[in-house]
Amino acid sequence: MMCITERVAALRRFMCERGLDAFIVPSTDAHLSEYPPRRWESRKWISGFTGSAGTAVVTAERAGVWTDSRYFLQADGELKGTGFELFRMGVPGTPDMTDWVIGLIGRGGTVGIDGLVYAASEAEVLRERLAAKGIRLETSLDPFEVIRADRPEIPKNRVFVLPEEVAGESVRSKISRINAALRGLEADGIIIVTLDAVAWTFNLRGSDVDYNPVAVACAYVSEREAVLFIDPEKVTGEVRSFYGEQGVRLAAYGEIFDYVAALPENSSVCVTGNKINRRLLQSVPASCRIVDVPSPVDAMKCVKNEVELRGFRNAMVRDGVALVKFLMWLEEAVPAGVVTEVSVEEKLREYRSQQALFFGESFATIAGYGGNGAVIHYHASPDTCLRVEAEGLLLIDSGAQYRDGTTDITRTVAVGELTEQMMRDYTCVLKGHIALARAVFPEGTRGSQLDVLARKALWKRGLTYWHGTGHGVGHFLNVHEGPQNIRLEENSTPLRPGMVTSNEPGLYRAGCYGIRIENLIVTRVCERSEEFGTFHCFETITLCPIDTRPIVRKLLSKSEIKWLNRYHGMVFDRLREHLNEEERTWLRLKTNAI
């Protein structure tokens, strides 16, 4: 197996043979996924950086990886000795990736990308910026098909259909709603590329991607027909019959390009520029009108129906039971000196796997003890993991996929003696979590307008965190889902009733410890009046005690203490009947009012 320097050398030979001065490797696949199937993990393969977000660039003499603040510490360690420089996005003095490339290769050069794995809108911006400097963009080459001998194939795992009693809506109904939205956009059809949007539209689930129950497929939906493009080996006769009954035609996965190229002249096609790859968009006939708008499918998918919300709540009960069992184990095992960051991950998986409808983890568990807790997307390995000592803080961010819902929870646990600074920091993070959980806001409010609530207590002490406060969560789908979020950066999507979003402020002291407290929340209608309109609030649905040992009680207001006590009362009431006597006694102690 080639080492990183050998891989880069192979890529440079490929570039030289084809007249390329630089090649850009994004993190995505042909479906612009956050977590791609292994076949398309090219950025990870070429650089050795395993984070889920980042872009690698290789030129004849230099190589670099651009990533955001969540991955600075991780990337710094993983890129050592590879020849790749780390460029910290958002940090003053860090060069823009495109400017860096332009500065290195100059006028008359050629930059390569694989148009199959590059978002069409991003590729066009790149092409325009390069062209302004006399540099050509080549989009037709896939070097990894040549230089990677062990490149995995596209998965051929069998798919299954999510029953309507779990999805809450039939495929036929969803297609009808999509077509209604297309009429409003004056579009004849829509190309659906992202795997979660395909999965939602067709109530389709699979196991092609780690952590996300999706299948490699794409689709075209119009009044004329709905076509699902998928490898026929993945489809059983039962599934094929189901789609026939729903009015869906199946076609081979690779036929999407010819199908799109043969669309009727002068038809209008709905796409989302950052959710369709460049190669597929270029297949649309020049005579067609492109309607480039935020995905109407995503706008429907993010608002959960009551059946989906019931599934979320049921999944939270089972997840809460598993977490109680885990926390009881942790409390006894740490003093015995037998806990490592890896065994934390293994035990969480063990207890969750014992629950009904468990399908797998929703992402790789982050179990960071001490300084590793400050690495925001840390993942322990058996060779380097820390043993959890009976002192300080342990940050655990984990989640599960159940066949009726997706969970994502972070708890920071006191595993022994704490410093005053740890306790003040923890309490400030908790204050931010509570402030967001208690928010009441008018209809039309965006996540960026609420983000300050989670940060205010930290800001007052000159502290902050650099990641977002909340992301959308799919229903037995991707744990990270748009279009809504809660973060400092502006996002035009308002928070609407039925959206499931995370609430996860944090604080990280490099080399010392990390703190994050995360629950999932559902946007709900709070009250309505003729004079002032509709107001929304959040319902917290995660069921797990928040550690009260690190709390500095005098820093909490009476209303904050009241919220925490009510939350803990709900946790105990919802979980008690699913626990044995010993577990109930433990949970009662952990949820006692403070």
Would you kindly provide a written description of the structure presented here, covering whatever features stand out?
- The protein starts with a helix and ends with a helix.
- α14 packs across α15 (341-353) and α16 (420-437) packs antiparallel against α17.
- The strands form 8 sheets. A 6-stranded mixed β-sheet has the order 4-3-2-1-5-6, with helices on both faces. A 6-stranded mixed β-sheet has the order 12-11-10-8-13-14. Strands 21-28-27-24 form a 4-stranded antiparallel β-sheet.
- The protein is an alpha+beta fold and 594 residues long.
- The protein has 3 domains: 4-147, Creatine Amidinohydrolase, Chain A, domain 1 (3-Layer(aba) Sandwich); 160-300, Creatine Amidinohydrolase, Chain A, domain 1 (3-Layer(aba) Sandwich), CATH 3.40.350; 306-588, Creatine Amidinohydrolase (Alpha-Beta Complex), CATH 3.90.230.
- It contains 19 helices and 28 strands.
Q: Give unreliable regions as ranges.
A: none
Strand order of the largest sheet: 4-3-2-1-5-6
Approximately how much helix is present in the residues? Answer: 25-40%
What value does the Rg take, in angstroms? 25 Å
The assigned structural class equals alpha+beta
Number of domains: 3
Give the CA-based shape.
globular
DSSP E strands, number: 28
The percentage of residues in β strands lies in 15-25%
CATH class of the largest domain: Alpha Beta
According to CATH, the homologous superfamily of the largest domain is Creatinase/methionine aminopeptidase superfamily
Question: Which tags fit this structure?
Answer:
Creatine Amidinohydrolase, Chain A, domain 1, 3 domains, Creatine Amidinohydrolase, 34% helix, 594 residues, globular, alpha+beta
